[in-house]
Amino acid sequence: MTAVAEAYAGEDPDSPLVDQAASGDSRAFKQLYERHYKRVYALCLRMTANPESAEECTQEAFIKAWRKLDTFNKQSRFSTWLHTLASRTTLDYLRKHKSWLKLVFSQEEESIPEAHGPSLEQDNIELSSLDKLLCRLPERARVVFTLHGVEGYRHVEIAEMLGISSGASRAQYHRARNLLQEWLDHEAE
């Protein structure tokens, strides 16, 4: 069980919906989608630094979740399982689209279009100042920072996911922190 899963041990509020969805109830899965869309999208956006890519990864993660729901073993909360699935889906996407994702995004143009999705109860998702800075990080540093600093994965887990050493994960995390701190200090001036 991961550190994130251990932190959420106990009764899972999604459990009844998961059981219904696992038995084929698409309305129950739709409710799970509506509950978790915003956070999954935010995770994908932080990792890809691109709204269209984040939307694609989010959709793919939910498709995979629907298909693999019967493999969810309830050793952790559904949200933990879903976020792990979304992280891995996004990492796969980044590997497949590596050259395309090297495009540089202008800070002034970094805004998130209105999110679309069935019965989504939000108007807009906007990038915070920190998220805008995250988008500027080099890909590997951004991914490691998001997985460790935002999602709470341990460096050993990140190393396994990315196929790097845990020392390289720590180094990328420090690199991201230092760059973010430098940029934050510069913005404060």
TrEMBL record:
Q: Which Pfam families match?
A: Sigma70_r2, Sigma70_r4_2
Gene Ontology terms, MF aspect? DNA binding; sigma factor activity
Q: Which domain of life is it from?
A: Bacteria
Q: Which residues form a coiled coil?
A: none
Query: What are the record keywords, sorted?
Result: Sigma factor, Transcription, Transcription regulation
Q: Where is the RNA polymerase sigma factor 70 region 4 type domain?
A: 129-178
Alphabetical GO biological process terms: DNA-templated transcription initiation
* Family from the record: Belongs to the sigma-70 factor family. ECF subfamily.
Annotated RNA polymerase sigma-70 region domain ranges read 32-98
Q: What is this protein called?
A: RNA polymerase sigma-70 factor (ECF subfamily)
